[in-house]
Amino acid sequence: MITILKLKFKDTTGKSHFFKIANPKKGLSKETVRQAMEMMAATHLIKKGDEELTATPVGAKYVTTTEEAVYSDEV
Questions:
Q1: Are 59 and 6 in contact (CB under 8 A)?
Q2: N or C: which end of the chain has fewer CB within 10 A?
Q3: Residue 16 and residue 11: Cα distance in Å, rounded?
Q4: What Pfam families does the annotation carry (predicted)?
Q5: Helix or strand holding residue 22 (H, E)
Q6: Is residue 71 part of a domain?
Q7: Does any domain span residue 75?
């Protein structure tokens, strides 16, 4: 199983953007994640042109997936 932390932000135009964090610490509190996301927004961390992609934190969730190989030529 693979677990990621998926962060959702709105940019300065109101469009949603998602950022994935691989191998996150499990059991993070709502307050901890919200504070980290607010810090990302306050520091204008990610921009594309004049748009701030992390302008407004919206939410976060853990996402767990299971991989099942169907075919691979890798040795």
A1: no
A2: C
A3: 6
A4: DUF2922
A5: strand 16-22
A6: no
A7: no
